[in-house]
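User: Here's a chain of 323 residues. Predict its fold as tokens.
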Amino acid sequence: MSPIAKRTEIRDYLLIIAGMALYAIGFTIFILPHQIVTGGMAGFSSLVYFASGCRIPVAVTMYTVNIAMLACGYKILGRTFVVRTIFGATALSFMIGSIEGFFTSRPPLVTDMTMSVAMGAVICGLGIGLYYSHKGSTGGTDTVAALLEKSRNITIGHSMVIVDVTIVTLSFFLPFDGDLDARIQARVQTIIYGWASIVIYSTIANRIVNADKQCIQFLILSPKWDVIARRVTHESGRGVTTFDGTGYWTGEGRKMLIVWCRRYDADRIYEIVRGVDESAYIIQSEATSVYGNGFDPLKTRRLKNIAPKESAATGETSPQPNN
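Assistant: Prediction complete.
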């Protein structure tokens, strides 16, 4: 591994740890003391914690279930995913376990439930976005979603939403002192808080994760196109495609360059073009999605097998769904 790759990997692991620390703080200090069940493995572990009368710590359930799921799905998920997830699950469980006893044995730090849950969800979202954007994983619903994607071709986003909403909804059946009307009044409120926390931290995490994935398209017109193309290719690492064009008024032939890059590469592209030709025309636009080498892989849903069925009358075959 090259020195640059080593530094990048070390930086990723440090930022993954920082993201997990933020998540542990947001969940343990601001959400758990109010007995709100959120999504993910932390939410499932909260169900076990409250159902056991607060005798089984959240961190213990998180780590035990994560390791069990990873052991069952090792062959499907692959070594790289499992190793990173074990690291993440161990680090997050340790962080939550080291502070949950202190904060759950005392009144909530922020007494107003709405403010506390909102603050916790924001901090959790920042943490999730930080460790996800650096290829970190803490297991839990990540593992379930990854297994469903590989075995059932269900997208990770859809499966995580289904699992998280289900976990929060199950909090309705937690032990409760009171009749059914009192249970409904109390539990529906906490379930709504749980759903709201999912929306908040998911939105924030998605914005952070997708910020660096946003793609930009450049159209560049300059008589020094060859110099620009060479420098963009060698200095930014992005490919350049050339098109032949003709000026309508002058009738002169010109070369136009098209470059796709991530948002974080855009400033470098500008510097290169302006450094070569300050009078160059540059058109920048956001590309909704770019798939292929250097960008996102193109994924398609697997179609059901189609078996031809022969017609008794004509002898022709027609495709029929294989149910």
